Amino acid sequence: MGNLSKYFAVVSVALLIILAVSPMKDFFREWKGYQYAYNRLVATLPQRVKTAEIGIKQIWVQKLDRVDRCETCHLGLKEEALKNAKQPFRTHPLIHHDIEEFGCTMCHGGQGVATEYKESIGNVKFWAQPMLPGNFIEASCGKCHKEQSVPKAPVLNEGRKLIEESNCVGCHKIEGYQKLWVPPLDGIGSKVNRTWLVQWLKNPKQYFSGTRMPNFLLNDEDADNLADFLMTFNTPPNNSQLKLLPSSLKSLPDARKAKLIDKGSTLFGEARCISCHLINGKGGYVATDLGKIGSKVSEQWLYNYIKEPKVLMPNVQMPRYRFTENDLTSVVAYMESEFVDFDVQQLPPHTPDPASYEKGLALFKKYNCGGCHALQGISGSSELGPDLTYVGSKKTYEIDFGNTKIEQTLPSYLRTKLLDPRVFSLVAKMPKFGFSDEQAIAVTVALMSNTGERIPEEYMVRPEPASHFVPQGQFGQLVKDLACQSCHVMDGTGRLVATDLSMEASQAQPQWIKAYFKVPYSLRPILTERMPNFFLSDAEINVLADYMEKVFVVDSLDRTIKSEPAMVSEGKRLYYERYGCQSCHMIGGKGGYVGPPLDKAGSRLKPGWIFHWLKNPEAYKPQSIEPDNKLTDHEADALTAFLMTLK
Amino acid sequence: MNRLTEQLVRSRVWRSIFRHGLPLSNRARAEAVFYNFFLHVHPTKVRRRSIKFTYTWGLGGLSAGLFIILTVTGALLMLYYRPSIHQAYWDMKDLQFVVSSGQFLRNMHRWAAHAMVAIVFLHMLRVFYTGSYRPPKEFNWVIGVVLLVMTILLSYTGYLLPWDQLSFWGISVGTNMVRAVPFGTGDRISYLLLGGNIVGENALVRFYVLHCFVIPVAAMVFMGIHFWRVRKDGGV
């Protein structure tokens, strides 16, 4: 009986201890320690800061479906006085969004409901998406912001640009990106030589460091087979034939050849090829590098291409210059003699593998070359890589980290994958794009902004609907032929390298436009001259100018100005004395260099444009640095009257 | 002292409850047990041999005790838990992070549930090895088997309620196994259980009702019969 009592006593005490542990644990919760520490810290501050009431604090955002308890410990988020305090009490940096309205995890990720440090970071078992590291935070901006350029998110914007330029959509499915034009491979056998092709396939960036073509890390045998396969395609698209040069350059006597080259050099400069093309790394960024073109393409192909670019490469954004046969020959002669790669190592003589066609075709399909390049009859599957539509929602446990020792999170996986695409698996096929670490982070950020999170439409910022403006008729033909839209925007379509032409004829007078096509020049002395001379005929210039005069106008910009002498002299006074326009603009060789000279403003601009421009410059060119001087209508009229006298 | 007891026993309150005086004779003791609602499950006579702890190991009593713990903690958990797809998992998280002693409550419910399955099984083994299923106790063995099945079903239905990956796939696999029942009835039983063809909102509510009401009430009824029979057959 005595023994039984002892057992009973021991068991009872054990039970009491167990029952006491739970309330104890509850009493000594981690967050309570932080709240007491905060109140102690606040007491030492010179400023008056409200102490925290002990208890769990949370932000409930019903529309975004989240409860974030981060504020339980991060107590000083809105207290200016705690700008330099230690975490978790530091003030939150100023952001556009209201914390109460968006919560914390919408941007930072992690486990918002947690009230313990480790659990809230989310790098724990059974929580698939830990907090985003600071340098990846812009990924969250992109969850809602789908517009072209997201304000205050440079990394995200850079990443999206890189994804578009790298043509990731050639192999992956990613929403919101366009597939860019890539040179088709039809007729490549008659375009390039085998030596160049093999070396290009092995490492494209060696030939042109700015190329968008990634490195597929081919071994010698694969590069040989793929090159032999591609060299068999020597018929240009649509079965067109390459025309022969009027006279073969090699057979010409040296003296005549030198004269041709000399003339070609002048024409090459006048045509301003380097507005778009690079020469050994210097020049425009719109088209490829021409620095070693002579060692890449045959002179026959070059002649035919410059003559009619779109015949050899449908849809290419290369203008068709109106060269005469003789001029064209001299340009080709100049390029073939000047732009040569002197370091090129000729490959040893090579007999193609009898099975090279089959092997090359297999390689072409394996690496999905057809995802980007068109090649007659051989279609690439447009989505060979994983679907990246919701890649930002990929769970850590779904990722195969292979044998790598990197941090096991999604951002670290993507960043590593972009830097070294085959590191996780030997059978991976993704090519190497040669991104720098900053670029890899940017692309990771842009990718991670594609999540499967369901966000209410009212929070989403969608891109502006794309314009479908396609110029028609004779004008449309010329725009296509001259590839105007690879530099100019017209009613929302085109690439903005030069000016937006949508209201050009409200701005400039038709006579000036016509003269400009004859001899293009740069309006600002500090800019390089970039508009090429296409050597257009008068009839063509009339078509362009007439169309612009009738279509690229905005009626509200029309205004007639009375050019009375009193107005003119008042305008002159305003120009020189009241507003000091001469500090940026030049008239008669005197004035500043920042703005365009106004010497011939009266024969270039229309009065309505000058008036409205002076009233509100940013309404017409948002990036303009022309100040808005808040002119009255009368002042603007007077200035316009004065400027219109400068002819 | 004796007078005080006598006064108490004679008082109207005592008489209204017990209807008789102190059971001083053997017959009166037997009757007191027999006519009392709370004591009537007791046998009027118990063999010394069967009181020995190492005969029963107290396994049946432990199972009943765990059932009580599970009922109490389960009732408390029901205060915080809502059986809907959208809220179930987050209510788990709130129990973990916000509710006072919430995690303790959950852990107690979970461990007691695991222990109950194990102990009920051990109880059955003990009954088997001591031959206690033999006549006249064969009916009680059958009830015991029913109770074992109910214990396992309680454990299984509770498995879905946290609504995490483990729950979802556990129940998916289980109900797919049900589909294998022949004669074209498998699909129908599975449909009945899930309230649909996949594990979803309806399945969650069905499993919740089974877990918190239907099976516990049925188990209590069978436990009543089980205990009654044990006692009447001279067990502890």
Summarize the structure.
Chain A is an all-alpha fold and 647 residues long. Chain A contains 26 helices and six strands. Chain A is flat and about 125 Å long.
Could you please say which CATH topology of the largest domain in chain A applies here? Cytochrome Bc1 Complex, Chain D, domain 2
Q: Count of DSSP helices of chain A?
A: 26
Q: Termini separation of chain A (Å)? A: 124 Å
Return the average pLDDT of chain B rounded to an integer: 90
CATH architecture of the largest domain in chain A: Orthogonal Bundle
**In what range is the share of β-strand residues of chain B?**
under 5%
Within CATH, the superfamily of chain B carries the name: Cytochrome Bc1 Complex, Chain C
Whole-Å distance between the termini of chain B? 33 Å
- State the domain count of chain A: 5
Q: How many strands of chain B?
A: 0
What is the alpha-carbon Rg of chain A in Å?
33 Å
Q: Determine and state the CATH class of the largest domain in chain A.
A: Mainly Alpha
The overall strand count of chain A is 6
What secondary-structure arrangement, pairings included, does this model have?
The complex is a heterodimer of chains A (647) and B (236).
Chain A: H1 2-27, H2 30-44, E1 59-61, E2 66-68, H3 99-102, H4 105-108, H5 117-121, H6 138-144, H7 154-165, H8 188-191, H9 194-202, H10 204-207, H11 220-231, H12 254-270, E3 278-279, E4 282-283, H13 299-307, H14 309-312, H15 325-338, H16 356-366, H17 410-419, H18 437-448, H19 473-481, H20 504-507, H21 510-518, H22 538-551, H23 565-578, E5 586-587, E6 590-591, H24 601-604, H25 607-615, H26 633-643
Antiparallel strand pairs in A: 1-2, 3-4, 5-6
Chain B: H1 2-10, H2 12-18, H3 26-35, H4 48-51, H5 53-56, H6 59-78, H7 85-97, H8 102-129, H9 138-160, H10 165-178, H11 186-194, H12 201-232
